[in-house]
Specification:
Chain A is an alpha/beta fold. In chain A, 40% of the residues lie in helices and 23% in strands. Chain A has a domain of 177 residues: Rossmann fold. The chains are: A alpha/beta (263), B mainly alpha (248). Chains A and B meet through helix 2 and helix 3 of A and helix 1 and helix 4 of B.
Chain lengths: 263, 248
């Protein structure tokens, strides 16, 4: 049974099809990269998988549960590191971690040790009692990652997790994530614009553009199919070199157009 | 339960960390008490109604609770803007619990604000008729605060920007407050104003507060309590309904 199953997924914002009939499956323990230009539909897909957005149509199954009907069971099955910051700036690093641990039903006896272990991993333990508003962007990002790993989910979503991180922290993150996938058989679904991260850390790569799945498979097949030397070359061959619109939240572009029409 | 507790506690912590919120929320009622209490006190006395400050304090306490609890909806909008809302929405905790935890936190701080006004009022000469009735006043304030906090979180889930929220706040909460009898007695007012006041839930809260603190009532306590409970149920229903529909 696949850990994640996406069947004919569609998300429309007005007449704009952000996700246009996508289907794929991810096995348990697999590291799956979702790649594509800005606005391709990656984040929208992740939002639908993580119960934040309702699909227009299609079916989503995760960990054997129907994402649309068994939301709470699904939510227990995954963890996510979002693309945008989601930590509370008016709380300390420790408090952010603690709140997350409680929301995710981490057993009380493990709580302190696990928070300590992860904050040490991202080298924030000595700053645990500082309000997050005083953190730099990179520190916040590290906190966010530590928090996403706090409960041990079956599926971990990483939506551009390494944006703004220095190479040291990136290496650290990927080592840890790969270890989780191997030791705990955790399923990893991630997006990134650093293609070497997908080359090094993904078992399979899916490419989406304009809401459509244009390629799916392992790196070797993808390179063979596109006759490319590396992922970047394959990526550009498949998606073109044209620069996409600046990133807007899904639906915003449509709303803005709609508003202009009303004026 | 622990989930509700930690979300409640988050609101309390944030409140005590924001000195400006505490000061600001005391400043406004203090201004009302001083400017209106002293400014209109003599007129009120001449009209033969007694001590205006005594009349005014329960109303100002209700006002403080009302506006502080409405602020919870603004907090929700901030949580959305700063992304924290997503963190709670993907957590394996039902939306109902998330809402209850936060709204109870907002209600607790609002009640605390109301109590602070009472302390200030004591300093400038206000006295309650029975000291133990303060507990009753606290309960009334907490019920009102819970109703308004859940209502405002419903509003905050539906309106996504601060300006829109403020506009609705001014359109709903200000009229409800000014037409409630918090600032003036509802005896001898024009019929239209009396009718509005009688369908306005805030009037009953203010009336119940007056009953608790200065032993005066216009509608009678039974009516007040029934009105307050109806308000609570309607607000919770609205808040839960809106909050469940949140998508980001």
């Amino acid at each position: 049974m696949p850990m994640i199953e996406v069947k004919n997924l569609v998300k429309k914002f007005g007449d704009f099809r952000a996700v246009d009939n996508i289907s794929f499956k991810v096995k348990a323990g697999e590291r799956f990269a979702l790649l594509g230009p800005n606005g391709a539909g990656k984040s929208t897909t992740i939002k639908m998988l993580t119960t934040l957005l309702k699909p227009t149509s299609g079916e989503l199954i995760m960990n054997g549960y129907n994402v649309l009907k068994e939301q709470n069971k699904v939510r227990k099955s995954f963890g996510i590191v979002f693309q945008d910051p989601t930590v509370d700036n008016d709380m300390t690093a420790y408090e952010n971690m603690e709140l997350h641990a409680v929301l995710y039903h981490v057993p009380k006896r493990d709580l302190k040790s696990r928070i300590k272990q992860l904050l040490e991993l991202v080298e924030l333990w000595d700053k645990k009692d500082i309000l997050v508003r005083n953190f730099s962007g990179g520190m916040r990002r590290r906190l966010e990652i530590a928090r996403g790993l706090l409960h041990h989910p079956k599926i971990l979503f990483l939506d551009e997790p390494t944006v703004g991180l220095d190479p040291q922290t990136r290496v650290l993150l990927w080592n840890y994530v790969n270890k989780l996938a191997k030791d705990k058989n955790m399923t990893i679904l991630f997006t990134t614009h650093y293609l070497e991260e997908a080359e090094n850390n993904a078992d399979r790569i899916a490419l989406i553009d304009h809401g459509n799945l244009i390629s799916i498979g392992n790196l070797k097949d993808l390179l063979l199919k596109t006759k490319s030397k590396n992922l970047e070359e394959a990526y550009l061959k498949l998606t073109g070199t044209e620069i996409r619109d600046e990133k807007l939240e899904p639906g915003v572009a449509w709303k803005e157009r709609h508003r202009a029409r009303l004026r | 339960m622990y989930q509700i507790y930690i979300l409640w506690f988050r609101q309390i912590k944030k409140y005590f960390r924001s000195k400006s919120r505490i000061v600001g929320a005391i400043g406004q009622p203090l201004l009302f008490l001083l400017a209106l209490g002293y400014g209109l006190g003599s007129v009120y006395k001449k009209a033969g109604d007694g001590n205006y400050l005594h009349f005014l304090v329960p109303g100002i306490m209700a006002q403080t609770v009302l506006f502080s609890a409405m602020f919870y909806g603004a907090m929700l909008i901030f949580d959305r803007q700063f992304g924290f809302l997503k963190e709670t929405l993907v957590a394996p905790v039902s939306r109902l619990r998330i809402m209850i935890g936060g709204a109870l936190g907002g209600a607790t701080t609002a009640t605390l604000q109301g109590f602070l006004v009472l302390v200030i009022a004591y300093i400038i000469g206000f006295r309650v008729s029975h000291i133990y009735m303060i507990f009753f006043a606290l309960i009334i304030m907490f019920v009102l605060a819970t109703a308004i906090a859940t209502f405002s979180s419903g509003l905050g889930s539906f309106v996504q920007d601060m300006q829109g929220f403020q506009a609705i706040n001014q359109f709903i909460i200000f009229p409800l407050y000014f037409l409630s009898g918090a600032l003036y007695p509802l005896t001898n007012v024009p019929t239209w104003l009396r009718i509005i006041a009688e369908v306005n839930p805030i009037s009953y809260t203010v009336d119940a507060m007056r009953y608790a603190l200065i032993n005066q009532t216009k509608f009678g306590l039974e009516k007040d309590i029934i009105a307050l409970l109806i308000t609570l149920v309607v607000c919770i229903a609205y808040g839960v309904w809106q909050f469940r529909r949140i998508q980001t």
